[in-house]
Design goal:
- This protein is α+β, with helices and mostly antiparallel strands and about 350 residues long.
- A six-stranded mixed sheet has the order 6-7-8-3-9-10, sandwiched between helices. It has a five-stranded antiparallel sheet with strand order 13-17-14-15-16. It has a four-stranded antiparallel sheet with strand order 2-1-4-5, with helices on one face.
- Strand 14 and strand 15 form a beta hairpin.
- The two termini are about 30 Å apart.
Length: about 350
Amino acid sequence: MHARIVVDRPGFRLDVALTAAPGEVVALLGPNGAGKTTALRALAGLVPFTEGHLRLDGTALERTPPEARPVGVVFQDYLLFPHLSALDNVAFGPRCQGATKAEARARAAAWLERMGLADHAGAKPRRLSGGQAQRVALARALAVRPRLLLLDEPLAALDARTRLEVRAGLRRHLADFEAVAVLVTHDPLDAMVLADRLVVVEHGRAVQEGTPSGIARRPRTDYIARLVGLNLYRGQADGHAVRLAAGPSVVTTEVLSGPVFVAFPPSAVTLFRDRPAGASARNLWRCEVAGLETHGDQIRADLTGELPLAADLTTVAAAELDLRPGAPVWATVKATQTHAYPA
């Protein structure tokens, strides 16, 4: 697939280029309003291109009506036909493509078997769990043998426990899919688990693209840094020292020159109520606690001051430090726990 998707709307312009090889899963990741779903709907033919192109297997599709595109779509709320059984929901696509009723039902039964839903073939959507409905929707999309599979927040409607199970199953099905799959999500874990490559979209533009591990290691915007749980800063490097735009310097182990990013996880930050004497950390800043929140099994402290940052610590440590909004603290980070890379 080769695409450049340009869609103009009042006060908003989407302009994103996408490429994908057969068998590749590409995730569009970004905040609400970034343009991810608009891009997906444009690929499906549900939103017209203002400019750009869509070529799939060498065929131009940007002016092709939705029903004539070799595209399967799994919508966020699945959109199963409530009056049809699971079997007939899946058979609907093949029937529209000209298959006989028997052929369509045979193909649908094979897909339900593959999804582990053979025992639910006769069930109407209202009798299916969220995870079962998601798998029926996926089977319905795959039964038309698409060359492009589009998934719009396919796990968003599931509870946390079901989501874990269905995510693992969806990954297995996508691994077997021989054509191109494009996934839209705002959940970084869905993107990291399901996708081979991420395209991060903000304000209608692609701001970073790469493998999940590469993007997690080298975020280039505050949004991405927050997603992967890193403190991120931009500055000018001169050897081991990076002078940040925010004011202070950060000492790193890398030797660089020119514009760079510096990142470190909140877990790398150590807090003290008094200025530490003889601390081994090369980076030391005076801060103030702006807020505290539970983050997993730890407490995350939002700090302002010389360097705004997030710090993770145990509940016991937070209690011993008597942390509360407005409390002054000293924050240290070892140079070996920072990571600097060219901007």
